[in-house]
Design a protein that fits this description.
The complex is a heterodimer of chains A (285) and B (299). In chain A, helix 1 crosses helix 10. Chain A has ten helices and eleven strands. Chain A is elongated. A nine-stranded mixed β-sheet of chain A has the order 3-6-7-2-8-1-9-10-11, with helices on both faces. Chain A has a two-stranded antiparallel ribbon with strand order 4-5. With 285 residues, chain A is an alpha/beta fold. Chain B is an alpha/beta fold and 299 residues long. In chain B, helix 1 packs across helix 10 and helix 4 packs parallel to helix 5. The longest helix of chain B has 19 residues. The chains are: A alpha/beta (285), B alpha/beta (299). At the A-B interface, helix 4, helix 5, helix 6, helix 7 and helix 9 of A face helix 3, helix 5, helix 6 and helix 8 of B.
Chain lengths: 285, 299
């Protein structure tokens, strides 16, 4: 069974995907690796690695459809909908606003006349792909304008569950921040690495990420990216406060970002160190 | 009736320079007209930090309740599993030992489906504190509304909506006619909440494959709401070829290019010193003034 490891972080642009893709390539030298791009808002791992994505399936969520023959215009559906996705003017048929609907089905349960049928709307797509022997890829992408993303992550995780026993490591690259799609991606991961940068913004958002991991009871460590641009001490303070460790410092240079802009994955000592950290645990077991 | 304009800065990809653009534009706008800033990234709020404002500098933190969570009254539960079947968010699991459901509050959307389906009235939805909002005066002649989603809480978009409402009220009280919002990364619920009600959107991108791909996604989201927008290419000199590619894309789709900003360590130093770049390095002012003028022409 593949060990599920999350690469996450509070602030955007600190290098989650850069580091997740780099360590996936490094680990795949000697292990079977599945890279899961769980940043369903803006998946980029395939762009960084030049992986051609294949569509696995569309993801749907249920939405209500009013059966006008059965509907008695009682307004109960609009009353129970907490997302304001159903509007009803007295004496008229209710109107459904698909953009607002999160697919909870509360209206269908509440309707006393069985007048609400299940329709569906497409909310995303699951993709897979492969870079080379030992390095496969899964991802999902949200349809634009869809707000409720946990069902998309859950659909992605279901696909991953189907194949993960074939891998030694399953790396989950999450969205930045602490909201629901990050939480959904983190749940089920055995350990997490929070990527941050030594700036006041990296410190602030990095701490939020660590607090979330603490709350989810996932063991975590810190990866310090863009090392050298600011003050390492502020991240060392987090290291002490959360009794964790900075396992590697990824240096910052204009050449790294120039390479990134050309789609060349980073490599080097700092990434090797991260890969060693991930594999060392296995040896101890 | 006041005529307040809403300007929102976003990017899709994180770290392309939203907050840098927002803070510098805010300072320059505030020299010319009365504005209010809004930090619409309740997940990881940084707008205040770019002005040197930390959490404790806000004096009026107010808890907000935008979400509800399902809570079980075990004494009424008959163990029928109907709630388990109906939850579309994986928030209910079954505890075989006691034959009762268990609710994962972090996954619960507070939709109420389980409450409705329960034949015994054993499930109630209760309001929970899921965030807080506050305001502060910056050192640069304008006020800022901000907020913070509680750790592990859901409802990021709804907290953003409250921050925007607060900023709007502040603008009315202070006689400001512009609310400038710094949005979260991505295209999900907090970003959609930031976009809604905006008069003009500024999307910040960078000349990288990820920056470009995410720009297209976030612009697609903006189009969904039919709001006019323009684009800033940040660090354009990192890859001239790719910058050209983005410029061609903008031209082809008749999207206004509001300006290009260079890669400059001064921006990083400004973030570290928590002062907008145009304050620390006035020589950068001209670049932002040009962008500001183009935005003004559009709103």
């Amino acid at each position: 069974m593949g060990k599920r490891i999350a690469i996450t972080g509070g602030k955007g642009g600190t290098g989650k995907s850069t580091i997740a893709t780099a360590v996936a390539v490094e680990l795949a030298e000697n292990n079977r690796v599945l890279l899961v791009d769980a940043d369903v808002d803006c998946p980029n791992d395939h762009l960084i690695l030049g992986i051609k994505r294949n569509k696995v399936k569309d993801i749907f969520q249920p939405i209500p459809k009013i059966n006008k023959k059965k509907c008695k215009k009682c307004g109960r559906c609009a009353e129970v909908c907490r997302e304001s996705a159903i509007v009803q003017v007295k004496g008229e048929f209710p109107v459904i606003i698909p953009d607002q609907c999160i697919g909870c089905s509360a209206c269908m349960i509440a309707c006393p006349f069985g007048a609400i049928e299940k329709d569906k709307k497409k909310i995303g797509i699951v993709y897979n792909g492969s870079l080379k022997k030992n390095l496969d890829y899964f991802s999902a992408e949200t349809e634009l304008g869809v707000e409720e993303e946990s069902p998309i992550i859950n659909a992605l995780k279901k696909e991953v569950e189907r194949v993960e026993k074939e891998y030694d490591y399953v790396l989950f690259d999450t969205s930045p921040g602490t909201h629901c799609n990050v939480i959904s991606a983190l749940q089920g991961c055995e350990e997490a690495y929070s990527v941050t940068e030594p700036t006041p913004l990296g410190e602030h958002d990095g701490e939020l990420s660590l607090k979330l991991l603490d709350k989810l009871k996932i063991s975590f460590k810190i990866i310090l990216n863009k090392s050298g641009i600011g003050d390492r001490k502020i991240i060392e303070n987090l290291e002490k406060k959360y009794k964790t460790e900075i396992i590697t410092d990824v240096p910052y240079s204009k050449s790294i970002i120039e390479n990134y802009s050309k789609g060349i994955p980073i490599e080097g000592r700092s990434i090797k160190k991260f890969a060693e950290e991930l594999t060392r645990g296995e040896v101890e077991k | 009736m006041s005529d307040i304009k809403y300007l929102t800065i976003l990017s899709g990809k994180g770290g392309t320079g939203k907050t840098t653009v927002s803070s510098n534009l805010a300072v320059l706008f505030a020299r010319k007209r009365k504005i209010v800033g809004a930090d619409c990234d309740a997940d990881a709020p940084n707008f205040g930090l770019s002005f040197g404002i930390k959490e404790n500098d806000f004096s009026d933190w107010q808890e907000v309740q935008t979400n509800e969570k399902a809570v079980l009254d075990e004494s009424k539960c008959a163990g029928c599993k109907k709630c388990l079947e109906v939850c579309n968010f994986g928030a209910i699991s079954w505890n075989e030992k006691i034959n009762k459901p268990e609710f994962n509050s972090m996954l619960c959307e507070g939709c109420g489906a389980c409450e409705l389906v329960c034949p015994n009235g054993a499930i109630k939805l209760v309001k929970i504190n899921n965030g807080k909002i506050a305001s502060v005066k910056t050192d640069y002649g304008f006020s800022l509304a901000s907020g913070q989603l509680n750790i592990g809480a859901t409802g990021s978009g709804k907290v953003v909506t409250l921050i925007k409402e607060k900023a709007s009220k502040m603008a009315q009280n202070e006689g400001a006619n512009l609310v400038l919002s710094d949005s979260a990364a991505g295209v999900g619920c907090p970003v959609i909440a930031s976009i809604q009600g905006s008069d003009f959107i500024v999307a910040v991108t960078e000349p990288t494959p990820s920056g470009f791909s995410d720009l297209e996604r976030v612009l697609g989201t903006v189009e969904h709401f039919r709001i006019p927008y323009g684009v800033i290419i940040n660090r354009y000199d990192l890859n001239f070829q790719f910058t050209k590619k983005i410029e061609d894309f903008l031209k082809k789709n008749k999207i206004p290019l509001l300006g290009k900003l260079p890669y400059d360590k001064k921006f990083i130093k400004s973030l570290i010193n928590m002062k907008p770049a145009v304050i620390e390095y006035p020589e950068l002012t001209e670049k932002f003034e040009k962008i500001l003028k183009k935005i003004k022409d559009n709103i």
